[in-house]
Amino acid sequence: MAAGKNSATAAADGITMQRTDAAAAAAGKTEAELGQTMLRRGTQSRFWWLVPTIYILFLMLPIYWLINMSFKTNTEILSTFSLWPQNPTLRNYGVIFTDPSWYSGYINSIIYVVMNTVISVSVALPAAYAFSRYRFLGDKHLFFWLLTNRMAPPAVFALPFFQLYSAFGLIDTHIAVALAHCLFNVPLAVWILEGFMSGVPKEIDETAYIDGYSFPRFFVKIFMPLIASGVGVAAFFCFMFSWVELLLARTLTTTAAKPIAATMTRTVSASGLDWGVLAAAGVLTIIPGALVIWFVRNYIAKGFALGRV
Amino acid sequence: MLELRDVSKIVSGETHISNVSLRLEAGSLNVLLGPTLAGKTTLMRLMAGLDQPTSGTVHMDDADVTGVPVRKRSVAMVYQQFINYPAMSVYENIASPLRVAGVDKATLDRKVRQAADLLRLTPYLERLPLELSGGQQQRTALARAMVKDARLVLLDEPLANLDYKLREELRAELPRIFAESGAIFVYATTEPSEALLLGGKTATLSEGRVTQFGTTIEVFRNPADLLTAQTFSDPPLNTIEVRKDKNRFMLDGSDGLPVPVRLAGLADGVYTLGFQPHHLSFKGREADAVSVDARVTVTEITGSESFVHLDYAGNQWVMLEEGVHRLNVDETLRVFIDTRHLLVFDEAGRSVVADRAEAA
Predict the structure, then answer these.
(1) Would the CB atoms of A206 and B87 count as touching at under 8 Å?
(2) Nearest to A128, CA basis, from A115, A117, A142
(3) For A171-201, how does the pLDDT look when each residue is reduced to its tens digit (9 = 90+)?
(4) Which among B286, B273, B264, B351 has a CA at the least distance from the CA of B312?
(5) What angle do CA B238, B241, B247 make, to 5 degrees?
(6) Could you tell me if A162 and A171 are in contact, meaning their C-beta atoms sit under 8 angstroms apart?
(7) ipTM of the assembly?
(8) Residues B295, B313: Cα–Cα separation, whole Å
(9) Does the pTM of the predicted model rise above 0.80?
(10) How far is B77 from chain A (nearest CA, A)?
């Protein structure tokens, strides 16, 4: 393993050295000429599309295969290799939408994810405003400490949460999972919102007070529209974390609030694994994320930079 | 009437405003003049109530308003940066203070349109502020300040970020726009020429202190001290430190200058002489000027005027001459100081000659 890594590094070094040589050879040309040459290579080559296409195919293949499988019968999945369904069927989706043990998983997931998103964003909004507008004792330390919460893997908290929630009788409720996920999502939402809020000049707040706005009215009427994209991005990140997080959700629930991801891992029945239904469930699990990402697609990069662009 | 009584503002050990007392009359135009970091913005924020003074009190028509939050006061403010509500149309931006105040629809519409008309914003009412040019954005902010009919209107370098043409235009309009309202009008600027163009009264600020407050032209002609004279001079005031010995101003490394007749009554001692760049010239009558030989360091030519930077016995001076003069660096030049306008300050920096004889 280590040797492999070393040789890889050596190979990379070799490439760098070749590049340096090439650069030295091209030293006669001006930088602009070099740029022109590279541009020509970029657009005029007949096979410029090849590498991106291969890459996209590589990325899309697992998703395509999942969708492909979800429309096949179990027999077809197990017996033959086919690039597309030979006998397309909607049975797999039918099972999910009619069997309560399947669709209740989706309902449970959506309930606690929405609860978590609403709690996280509404708690993070005032916190982020305070961090962005006021200086107080230890504000910078507290702000950084918030983010360190995300550095621990969720598994670490599974045991304390389980013990704590058992004591309060919260096990197997939606709010239990929603609150547990807040531990990770509130800090993230605070960071994202703080970034967006700091992009709004403080003078706008003051102008509003001068105009006679009270704080709540200013916050809702003037400030919220200015950070709406930030709220969207923060909500998206909370949604995505909560939607894909499996370990805490599974530990804290048994039946009444069981998430879809947990249902999917418990589908071995007497007749073996139901591949088709599992694939259909997978497709349906991807859809909410894809829908949500569509609404914040223009701001997502800013969100990944925690609003600091 | 707005009155500041011994107002100080100290932020984490640093004095931003030190013992300022000012009385601004209703319906008056007041200019706060001072370089950046002199405390103009801090002083305005204290007047508005955005910040609370560390000590001292603020009175509005004899009522103490020191602790009253800004939204309960009758204040309008325009910032140097163009501050509008980006998510609202220009119309809604201007209407905003009226909406909060609960003004009825018809009055609101009439006032907004009137203000927009006066500031030539009528064609842009439905646009968003960020779609407008800088000048239009600032006019939107001004219109919002105007419709409020506040008793105190604070303009913090409102024209500093605008281009030259627009600045000229708006500067001429501003006093007229707010004149009828009877409000106390406070205008902060770093430019002495702007203060002179606006007129009214001027308070010169230097490092958090008001060095002088009076009629603008009076402050300009008869600065009470050296700091005021320096603040109120652009290009910078030319100064030279001399020791008066009978009828000569002595200085090191030179046989000195004759004392003009006007200043013959001064007691012997150390003084700082000050004079404006346009009172230094190539030519002058011996009767009311003294001549010195100075070395040219830089010449800046701006179309029709020349700024000649001179070095005289270690003092850096600027001479403003009409016309284009090309001079060689290190050339020695005979220049004349018009003594009729000479300012004389004692060792503490206080003015000792009251009359600058502008009429003479």
Answers:
(1) no
(2) A142
(3) 888 999 999 999 889 999 999 999 999 989 9
(4) B273
(5) 110
(6) yes
(7) 0.81
(8) 9
(9) no
(10) 7
